[in-house]
Amino acid sequence: MKSTSNRRTALKNIAAGAGVLSLPLSISKVIAASENALGPKLNGKINHSVCRWCYSKIPLETLAQEAKKIGLKSIELCGPDEWPVLKKYGLTCALPWGEGLTKSLDQGFNDPKNHAELIKGFEDIIPKVQAAGYNQIICFSGNRRGMSDVDGMMNCAIGLRKLMPIAEKHNVTLVMELLNSKVNHKDYMCDNTAWGAGLCEMVGSEKFKLLYDIYHMQIMEGDVIATIRKYHKYIAHYHTGGVPGRNEIDETQELYYPAIMKAIVETGYKGFVGQEFVPSRKDDIASLKQGVTICDIA
Known about the structure:
Elements: H1 4-18, H2 27-34, E1 47-51, H3 60-70, E2 74-76, H4 83-88, H5 115-131, E3 136-139, H6 149-170, E4 173-177, H7 193-203, E5 208-213, H8 214-220, H9 224-231, E6 235-239, H10 257-266, E7 272-275, H11 284-295
Parallel strand pairs: 1-2, 1-7, 3-4, 4-5, 5-6, 6-7
Helix pairs in contact: 2-11, 5-6, 6-7, 9-10
């Protein structure tokens, strides 16, 4: 794999020789910009967040300090025990974890056997989310295990509807993540946007929406920008990640994130975009800074 500087040189040579490289905003230019310190002043069109688990090697306090330096507003996928650290550094948690079965990806709302435990867990955590000043919490469909998508959707809706009164009372949205079942989460049910949107319609509350994970949905269905435009009213949160490999979102992968961010902003979206790639280089914070720069459209 060539270094970033070698890629830049190659691109310049191609452009000079052929005169055909004329993108209005190349990833190479974005990468060059990311080599400068961002500071707390970003363009403001995207609310930037980062997923805690991708930086698990870094103590949370250190990550919070670095996030503030970059200009992030949130560290997400944190549980109640971690929220005080975020508050200490003036950060929010754009998408919190629950506890117990509420954190399970493969045991979810599509299995009625899980409903009692899930409902109890979310009834406990939703008021805590509101008290902490947050307004969303992540949830999952669970795996198919031979169940049809129709039956799974109906089962999910039955369980989720029981939680909508408490979600509405506390102004907290349950956000179900779209995950790929091809590479990372074999057999996961909520693995395509149309199914997720159908579930939103069946639940019938503004307090249930989707987490559109760009990495996962590029693997499952592609056509990312058109899908965002079509289904944006069902989407409450976004995650990034390089395809293939779930690493940095620069020119080493197949997606052009500035265009995706522009499409998200054009839908009127005012929520957060969480960086959820796994850094593959020596300096994790430099990779995070680069990802934020790429997504921070003017």
